[in-house]
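Quick one - inputs below.
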Amino acid sequence: MQRFALIGAGFIGSLHARNLFRHSNVSLDFIADIDVEKAQALAAEHGALAISIDEVFTTEIDAVLIASSTPTHADYVERAAHAGKAIYCEKPIDLDTRRAEQAVTAVREAGVPLMIGFNRRFDESHAALKEVAMTGELGKIELVQMTCRSQETPPMAYIKASGGQMRDQAIHFFDLLCWLTDDVPVEVHVTGAALSDPSIGEAGDVDTSIATLRMASGALVQIDCTRRTGYGYDERVELFGAEGMAESQRQPHRHLSIYKGSEQISDGLHADWLKRIEPTFYAALDTFVRGLDGEQVDYPNAGAALRAQRIADAATKSLQTRMPVTLTWD
Amino acid sequence: MQRFALIGAGFIGSLHARNLFRHSNVSLDFIADIDVEKAQALAAEHGALAISIDEVFTTEIDAVLIASSTPTHADYVERAAHAGKAIYCEKPIDLDTRRAEQAVTAVREAGVPLMIGFNRRFDESHAALKEVAMTGELGKIELVQMTCRSQETPPMAYIKASGGQMRDQAIHFFDLLCWLTDDVPVEVHVTGAALSDPSIGEAGDVDTSIATLRMASGALVQIDCTRRTGYGYDERVELFGAEGMAESQRQPHRHLSIYKGSEQISDGLHADWLKRIEPTFYAALDTFVRGLDGEQVDYPNAGAALRAQRIADAATKSLQTRMPVTLTWD
Amino acid sequence: MQRFALIGAGFIGSLHARNLFRHSNVSLDFIADIDVEKAQALAAEHGALAISIDEVFTTEIDAVLIASSTPTHADYVERAAHAGKAIYCEKPIDLDTRRAEQAVTAVREAGVPLMIGFNRRFDESHAALKEVAMTGELGKIELVQMTCRSQETPPMAYIKASGGQMRDQAIHFFDLLCWLTDDVPVEVHVTGAALSDPSIGEAGDVDTSIATLRMASGALVQIDCTRRTGYGYDERVELFGAEGMAESQRQPHRHLSIYKGSEQISDGLHADWLKRIEPTFYAALDTFVRGLDGEQVDYPNAGAALRAQRIADAATKSLQTRMPVTLTWD
Amino acid sequence: MQRFALIGAGFIGSLHARNLFRHSNVSLDFIADIDVEKAQALAAEHGALAISIDEVFTTEIDAVLIASSTPTHADYVERAAHAGKAIYCEKPIDLDTRRAEQAVTAVREAGVPLMIGFNRRFDESHAALKEVAMTGELGKIELVQMTCRSQETPPMAYIKASGGQMRDQAIHFFDLLCWLTDDVPVEVHVTGAALSDPSIGEAGDVDTSIATLRMASGALVQIDCTRRTGYGYDERVELFGAEGMAESQRQPHRHLSIYKGSEQISDGLHADWLKRIEPTFYAALDTFVRGLDGEQVDYPNAGAALRAQRIADAATKSLQTRMPVTLTWD
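Output:
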């Protein structure tokens, strides 16, 4: 039984609380939030104890799940590392890559496990795609196509604090890309525009973008990101290899079709990202817990977090300069 | 080059004329119809000569394609047989099975080739299903499901002359069934009703029916037939075997999808049976011609015609008596 | 908060225990089983107390969930009814319809809620089909097609105690049919055979069957049931109406396709019925609990249980006599 | 009846000959080829007369269909224009855009109709996509995704004479893009590599490329092109607008699925581009002929040819310089 403290009792914190509560090998002992009442309400719901954030790093627990606001992540990661706790941290560690690197250094020195919430890896269909890629049956990967389209533009306050579309939205797919292909990009070029909402452009960001990457292996990659579709949450990944192609497809939310006149009207995509992605939160947590229980598991670690962040930085620079940007890896 | 005379210059005759004209190994020399003007117009369109029906059986040709009205088929088949011509005849040979048997006897005595227009066998997807069935990879067939739904009720005059839903519509699927499974039914039970149009019921026919058959091999079969959908022409065949299932699916008429709101709106089925089935007419003709040219081909012959007709007779009897009807084959 | 006692700590009981534990408005207080150790183990897992079956009917609880073996259901239903508890009972109440009717009488006299575990109604796609049917946009229903194919034949011991394919497997679809169409059958004809395993035939049962039903409204229905596919769990429902058709489709278990050579290889169906149906158990329970909490809900009640059972009895009689059987309803 | 002369009796010429022969409003009178025997053989097959290329421009015909080798196109276009014939010319008019512009000037001065063989516009699904785009129901177009993947690398001789992947393969999609969106690109960036065959790289070309375009309207576009898949011909277009998305999808060549074990094995894509695209040749020709017959039709004209060519030139320059290239239009 792994004893957890959860930091953050907001939307994502509550979601994690439900999964921690459900998990038979987890004991959700403590919940902390700078808003004490929020922590108390969520704790009451799941039979946990509300404590202060400082107490999290001194109590008898095995792991900390960090789901607070982004600017607090690096600090909490460092403190949890110093306290010798295993860490599950929502992405990103910090919008500033150097600050994130500092936190990762603390984690590495402490030798504690760190998992980053790149939960798309735990989507069943994407995971099946990874399995296919690893069998080698597609041959050498030559082309990757990723579609990443949110249903609804987040509020401007969120946009402004997000670090931009590359660091906030595309970063999940930068991680997915490296993981699926076991490769890293050496060049990235991004074209973008604020098409759905001019105020996004005024804030210096884009809502529609196409990233083109060249991988170390020579493979080419395209990723299109948009902030709001008129038709639900749309995510899709294609791996094209020398001997075949595999696709983790758009997913209908139910399996109903109506035939009328000259049309077949089917259920469309999931209404929002949470409906599509929700099962991955539990699957990600479960992997982390199995790792704590001693099982050999594969999850997005500190290295993956920094890697995705460096790609997002380069992508952001390309967006700003309108030029391809080179990436080097040692 | 096979020289053809075509009898019948109506809707189906015109369709056959176009295919005969297009075929590079066919010379469409003559067209006959009891309506001489119709024959002349169609002949002019394709550089053929209009002749009388009597002349068809005395001219220098290799084959006769019979696409006239049903009551004339048996007579023309016999005359073509006596004249030693190869025969392609639209189904049925005659609504009365004994009359059809007489005509077949004449064909067999004359030793001429006879092909019946059960053209669904030549649908690419159904033909692929047959190939799968023949590999044995599905294991022993245990269950067959056939869906056969027309887009629009034919005129009452047609219904009244058709011999009923079993002899007119279901008969195509009785043939397809025997061909796909290489088997014959030993029992048939049909439940039906006139649901779309009461005047069909007053005429003693049904427009909606479910036939259940038990095959000699023990396999069970269900066939649903309807006369008018609200959504185009709907045809579908499933073969369920001990080791797998194969499906010749509903077919969209194009491959377009629109995603809007919570829906995916795709192109529906073909607007009518002709749009779905049209390519099979050419494929059927081509098979017949390749047979005339000496190639070893498989097509619905006299035996298949009589077999399907006996099943349709039994199905009609079951509809009338509301009881299962037994079929015996020597 | 509804306080529950669970009777039955076997496979289905354990599944219900997990859902009762997860539900935020449920307190799973007690678990009973004739195998006391099983009850204790399951109770320990969920922080409940193991008690004897007799104690279930005297403790301070709101509801009893009956998931014990079929022959005990009717007795427990009656005792729970006399004790004034709300009842959620796995199907069937009893294999013998008269015994089931007695139990239902007790429930009605006690005035307690009774829900039967016809959980397919709670499948998201079937539920969406029901919504479509209720809008009337399909027009008057004329034809229903249901496919119900299990992945693997249950053990012979199960088969022998099951009451036969109609009472064990088809009964779910008899309930679904009445619910979806808001109608009842007036005639049923079933053709069946033991094709996958002769010992099923020796036990007097079938493993492959086609049921044809005529509804009071005139609509025709076909249901095919098989016990083992070579390809996972296969369930499908089509409602064909005067103005359109709606289909709750076969469901792939993930959304992955591989394109290689001339093939597209996609994820197939769910490996077994539980993988396909599991979410419906929670959804069904949740509906029951919301009803207890005072919400207006629709679920399969005593009347639905008896209705499905009478259809299954008639279907079984048709199988045995090979003749259509008439059903009358007051 | 439009009287045609066909120049070119090779692979594409033969295909055009069959369509010209089939068309009821076309009289295929003459066929010319620099290889006289080829012209004679093809002419014999369709009842036409073989003539010299010079004679084409002096005979009594209405239209010339130019399907000879690319370097001859511009010359023949000019000669046909001077002779006052309507012209259907396979793409491109000339690999050199200035030479193509000269030929177009001759056509414009002569006032004769010129259609370019951008036949993908005539694909039924793409044409349906255009219709959807024109209704405005997708809202303002913001993102376009095009997939253009051939099944098999053409011979090196073809590659070397083709003008490169942009001018040979992508150009069809540059035309499709402008037509579908009624817009032009103002910036293009292409990343490419020779991944399937190093000798393509040695010849200075690529076989895998990703083009990113920014349209005058602000919309962003991505086009991926590959020379050989392991899985047939793969073509797909998505239009993403402010109010919805429409997709002209990958097309299976038949509609057969096999369910076995945990897989659904379906028919894959068309084996090669011709199988997928063949119907568009007839549809394109028919549109041209209807235009000659006085009907108001829309087809790829001289302006479209030059527009696509300028985009292909810019795309080629971007490939070579690895930098975005700007396009200006007056």
